[in-house]
């Protein structure tokens, strides 16, 4: 009986961790589209990294600077949506890995929205005192080069 209860507690804890990580990843799009640099940066560890392929960030401050950048603020001014599919999350104690796909939709005047980018994100997380935080995130476009597929393979092999 005691083993069953302990097993159930572990399973519930894993489900709660997966839900919390999915919520963290899901909050990125709305936060970055709202232009809130501090809230976006708070998703990362202080020294957490983010490599988009075009831009490399190595701290929470760098992530905030990206949100404040003219390039990003220009996206917001035109109208954009960072949309993320559900992540596949693997939790291992106080560390986790997630992989998901995303699209960046950008408003094109009266023509509605166009897909500006479609990509894959491999996200490494750690449990901190306040919950989960991103320690490393790599994004690559689904451009046929194979780099995005490598991220999928790495994320799903855990």
UniProtKB/TrEMBL annotation:
Residues 14-137 form the SnoaL-like domain. This is SnoaL-like domain-containing protein. Pfam families: SnoaL_4 (PF13577). It comes from Mycolicibacterium sphagni. InterPro entries: NTF2-like_dom_sf, SnoaL-like.
């Amino acid at each position: 009986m005691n083993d069953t209860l302990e097993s159930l507690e572990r399973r519930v804890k894993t489900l709660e961790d997966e839900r919390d990580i999915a919520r963290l990843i899901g909050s990125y799009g709305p936060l970055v589209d709202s232009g809130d640099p501090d809230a976006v940066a708070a998703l990362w560890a202080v020294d957490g990294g983010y490599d988009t392929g075009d831009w490399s960030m190595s701290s929470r401050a760098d992530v905030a600077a990206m949100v404040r950048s003219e390039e990003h603020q220009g996206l917001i001014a035109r109208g954009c949506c960072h949309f993320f599919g559900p992540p596949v999350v693997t939790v291992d104690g106080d560390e986790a890995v997630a992989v998901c796909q995303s699209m960046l939709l950008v408003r094109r005047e009266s023509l509605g929205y166009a897909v500006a980018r479609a990509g894959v994100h491999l996200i490494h997380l750690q449990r901190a005192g306040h919950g989960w935080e991103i320690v490393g995130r790599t994004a690559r476009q689904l451009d046929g080069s194979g780099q995005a597929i490598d991220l999928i393979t790495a994320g799903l092999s855990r």
